[in-house]
Design brief:
This protein is mainly β. It has one domain: Immunoglobulin-like (Sandwich), CATH 2.60.40. It contains one helix and seven strands; from the N terminus they run βαββββββ. Pfam families: PIH1_CS.
């Protein structure tokens, strides 16, 4: 079995590099902040009272992923946030968080808000998954 490379000077194929590895920097001494991943689901009366849809309380039926990150002693202007389809990269002067997300997200349609009284950054991301018998 021989792998053909498009460019003979490359030492590996792009498919061999794990997604998000371009963000890894183990030398960075900043500590990781506390965070929490929550899931949101849109339900109506037909779901709650009648059970007419196939939705259940599992994460497979959720539309949004909410990541709450505790950032004490941080100003909103100090936060650098980069969202990819499977990776969240957050940097502040004191903290850094490289989070490999449990589901693919639509990185173009996310929103973030900083709750200064709680010192928490709340990032809401739309989960993008293929339609199946649950998500239609």
């Amino acid at each position: 079995f021989q792998v053909k490379s498009e460019n003979r000077k490359t030492i590996w194929n792009a498919e061999e590099v794990p997604e998000g590895s371009e963000f890894d920097d183990t030398w960075d001494p900043r500590e990781q902040p506390e965070y929490q991943i929550l899931f949101k689901q849109c339900v109506g009366t037909e779901d709650v009272f009648f059970g007419m849809s196939r939705k259940d309380p599992s994460t497979a039926c959720c539309e949004d992923m909410v990541i709450k990150i505790k950032l004490p002693d941080t100003k909103y202007s100090d936060i650098v946030l980069d969202i990819q389809d499977k990776v969240l990269d957050l940097r502040t002067p004191q903290k850094k968080l490289l989070l490999h997300l449990p589901y693919h997200v639509d990185s173009k349609k996310g929103k973030a808000r900083f709750l200064s009284e709680e010192e928490t950054l709340e990032v809401t991301l739309r989960v993008s998954r293929m339609f199946d018998f649950i998500n239609f």
